[in-house]
Design goal:
Layout: H1 10-23, H2 25-39, H3 45-55, H4 61-72, H5 80-103, E1 107-108, E2 111-112, H6 114-118, H7 120-141, H8 144-167, H9 175-200, H10 205-232, H11 235-238, H12 244-248, H13 253-261, H14 264-275, H15 283-293, H16 296-314, H17 322-336
Antiparallel strand pairs: 1-2
Length: 339
Amino acid sequence: MGALETLPPASDAEDALTALTALVRDDLVACNRVIVARMDSPVALIPQLAAHIVAAGGKRLRPVLTLACARLCGYREGLRHVNLAACVEFIHTATLLHDDVVDESRLRRGHASANAVFGNKASVLVGDFLFARAFQLMVEDGSLQVLRILSGAAATIAEGEVLQLVTQNDLSTSEAQYLDVVRGKTAALFAAACEVGAVVAARPAAEVAALRDYGMNLGIAFQLADDALDYAADQAVLGKTVGDDFREGKITLPVLSAYDAGDAAERGFWQRTIEACEQTDADLEQALRLMSERGAIRVTLQRAAHFAALARQSLAEFADTPLRRLLQAVANYAVSRAR
């Protein structure tokens, strides 16, 4: 039985995320209060645009991870974990604003993206504002270790986005290079969100490293599933236009898998549509057919399941508690939502 088949049903995995969120609900409410307060500005467009993307929803997965990891490590007093969870969410939201401008996306979580409503200039500048707010929260925390972790993650995210830009339209990109993009643009923030939960609790280095590894592998699994969803999801479920990655010529594992397994004619199709970006209205349907025939989505989800398993294993450093089991089940959720 393969790793993918061992995952629980998607509904069970999502129940785990719901349960984890409920477990930290009071802290998450406090985190949301910090987010709202720190979005405030006398420049009216800033809170207006920031509120637009926050109102679009999202499961607040990254701040939930910070709060849950702090609790796993025994942090019970003070509000450092709450403020740092808000910091993590500001970094994430800033990257969403910038990404949608770079990708020219018109939808975000099923709603009009901020750049579609307010324009590119406003989205970029408010993203910068949210980054600045995140750094203010880091400084106020007073820990150089926290500052190192979160500022490092912010730099790594930018590097990952630039690396994705460099590899765009390049079918010679290796899976290792693709995973470097994923680690940078997505997994680095997951890793930092989990790691600071251990740091605020002053846990030993082994536990800090274990939570960093958990977050990194969880983030990779999450992004691999997202890349599969771009070709396999219903638009209403995906929250953005299906096939956006294809139209933009993004190099993701479904494309690389289909290209590597394809014959000469199929490779010619991918070279025309991805490398040369010469696409017709019928090409997305053809891409989906080739991916199905070559098992590209299955391969991608198997790789995602592999990293989800590594995430679960990373938590072996901690005692077997209901909270640890919920965090392990969230790794299943990262993959199961794409099934």
